[in-house]
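One chain given next:
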Amino acid sequence: MFKKILIANRGEIAMRVIRTCKEMGIKSVAVYSTADAESLHVRFADEAVCIGPASSAESYLKMSNIIAAAEITNADAIHPGYGFLSENAKFSKICEEHEIKFIGASAEMIDRMGDKASAKSTMIEAGVPCVPGSEGIIPDFETCIKVAKETGYPVMLKASAGGGGKGMRAVWKEEELQNAWESARQESKAAFGNDDMYMEKLIEEPRHIEIQIVGDSNGRACHLSERDCSVQRRHQKLTEETPSPFMTDELREQMGTAAVKAAEYIKYEGAGTVEFLVDKHRNFYFMEMNTRIQVEHPITEQVVDYDLIREQILVAAGVPISGKNYFPQLHSIECRINAEDPYKDFRPSPGKITNLHLPGGHGVRIDTHVYSGYIIPPNYDSMIAKLITTAQTREEAINKMKRALDEFVVEGIKTTVPFHRQLMDHPDYVSGNYTTKFMEDFTMEDPVQ
C-alpha cells in the first residue's frame, strides 16, 4: 500500500481524497497555487507545497512542478482528482517514468478512450451500442456532406478532443452544415489545439445516463449502476440523481452489462464511467468514457455504501476487485452549488464569503472546501460545494433536498442555491419527466422582494 499520496488538484475533490487517505492511514500532500493558499485542502493535508501562481497553466497544469512536489515530499502516488491533469496521457506517462503511481488510467488507456472518435470505434469492436455516424475522424467537408446524408438529419458535429460542450454543433439541414463545420472546428482548435471532427446522429429527447464502473489489473470489471445527469446547462451538469427515474430493471441490466463489457474489452484499470445517451424509447448509445472519478460520484457512494476513492487507491495498489455488481438500495440527489448568479444568466460571482451556514441532519452530505471568510478566486471552476441528500424514496430525497437548500446560507456572493430550490418544485423535475433539453425551457422566477 502507498505510504504517501500527493493530490494534484484543489477544492472539494482534494478534500475528499485527503479524508479517505486519513481513514486508510496514508499520508497526504496538498499542492496549491498562490490563489488557494487559504483553501481547506491546504490546511487538512499532512503536507502542502505551493506549485505556482494563480493561473492554472502555471500551477495545477504545470506537470514539472507537480512531479517536483511529489519528489521533494517522497510521495509514491499521485491522485489527480477530476479536471486538470486527470485525463492527461502525457502526465500519466511521466508519473510512470518517475516511478510514481498515477491513481487513474494508463497513458495508453487515456489515449484510447480520451479521443472520442477512437473510443467510438473501440466500442463498436467491443459490441457496445453506438450512435450511428462517421467511422472516426472526418477528413474534409466533402466527406462531411456525404456522412451527413448517409446518417440522416438531424446530425451532431463533435470535436474529437472535446469536452464541456466545446466544438459541438447540431445541424438540422444541409444548408446549415458548412457554417457549423467551420465554426465547430474553429472553436475546437481554440479550446483544445485540435480541430478534428466526427459526426453522430442527433438523438432527440435524450437523457444522459452514465454507468459507474471499476476495473482491476486482472482485467475484471464491475458496475455500480447508473446516474442520471440530464439536467444540464450548455452541456454542464447542474444536478444528478440515482437511480434514474427513467430506468427500468431490464434497462439497468442491459446498460450495466454493456458498460462492464466495454471496461473488460479494453482491460480498464481504475474507476471510470461509461456514458450513454438514452432516447425516449429507451434505446441506449455509447457516448464517451471518462477515465477518472466524476464530480457526481458521491450519490453512487450513498446508495451502495461504497467509498469510490478508497477503491481507486486499492486498485492502483494492485488489490483485485470483488467482481460483483452493485445496485441502488436508496435514492440520492446531488446539487452542484456554484458561485454564480442564476438570476443573471448564471454569471460567475467570485469574492469573499462573509457568512456561511451549511445544512445538516440525517441523509444530508456536503462536500466542500469553503468556509466563512474564504475568498473564492476568479481563476477556476465556480463550484464551491456539492449538496447531497439520500433517502428511501425519490420523493423523500427531493423533500430532504428542499429542506437542506432552505438551510443553506451563503452571504457575500451569489450562488445557485435559489435555482436548485426552484428546480425541486418544478413539476417536470418532480415527476422525473426531464431530458437534456430541460434547461432550454426553464426560467428563474423573480426573487421575492
About this structure: The domain at 4-103 is CATH 3.40.50.20 (Rossmann fold). The two ends are 57 Å apart (CA to CA). The chain has three domains: 4-103, 132-201, 207-441.
